Amino acid sequence: MHLPEPILPPLLSGRSVKTPARPFEAAVEAARTGEAGGGDVVWGRDAAHFMMALVLEPDTPRRRAIEMLPVAVAALTDALASLAPPETSVTVDWPNTVRVNGGRVGGVRIAVSPEAALDDIPLWMVVGMDIALMRQGSRADPGLEPDVTDLHEEGCGEITRTDLVEAASRHMLARVHEWEAEGFAPAHRTLMSRMPEPGSTLELHHEGRRYEGRFLGLAEHGDLVLGTSSGTIILEAAGACGSPEEALR
């Protein structure tokens, strides 16, 4: 299937990779070797799967820069909501999973240069986005993974890879500028509107452990506040940030 090349916002420049290469891993390697810098976008040519990665060069300490994970989740849901039919439900599972009409379609991940401690400014950061447009082969059998879906199955089959690369790029750039001007508050509002109601029971795995409790809200940096039988705990969104080494496995 031939699709037009995406047109990116003026501040971004892009290049594509063909399957089986994956944009996130390619962008991490390019950022680490200095072949890519801030504003470079790597996108995948697979017409059935939207995959895109954006290289950033933060000017704030890692502790705050990792807010790009929830900011990117907000941007990706913005992009989906702008392209999908009006009745489509776009929601978020903390910290980085995106659902359409209740089914998981993809999400966001980031990698940060390993030299940066929490109070250091990272040399680079890569934000990766991934959405299934149309699952193929064995992955298309809903009986195998009833919780997983794709945009075609959810009535969003008109959305193409090119559409999402363009929309996600625009919304990510807008969210980054908003974050620079206003901080985390705008993304916080968006995520709270797309997550379960406060007081809802959540069950999740985070950093190798299982948690269950009442969702109380989001704290600083997009951390999750959970009320459990043993008291209120805060799960750090930073725990979902992959290392460059993990990204390249």
UniProtKB/TrEMBL annotation:
BPL/LPL catalytic domain boundaries: 8-190
Task: Please give the Pfam families that the UniProt record associates with this protein.
Answer: BPL_LplA_LipB_2 (PF16917)
Query: What is the originating organism of this protein?
Result: Lutibaculum baratangense AMV1
Fetch the InterPro entries from UniProt: aa-tRNA-synth_II/BPL/LPL, BPL_LPL_catalytic
Judging by the UniProt lineage, the source's domain of life is Bacteria
The name this protein carries in UniProt is BPL/LPL catalytic domain-containing protein
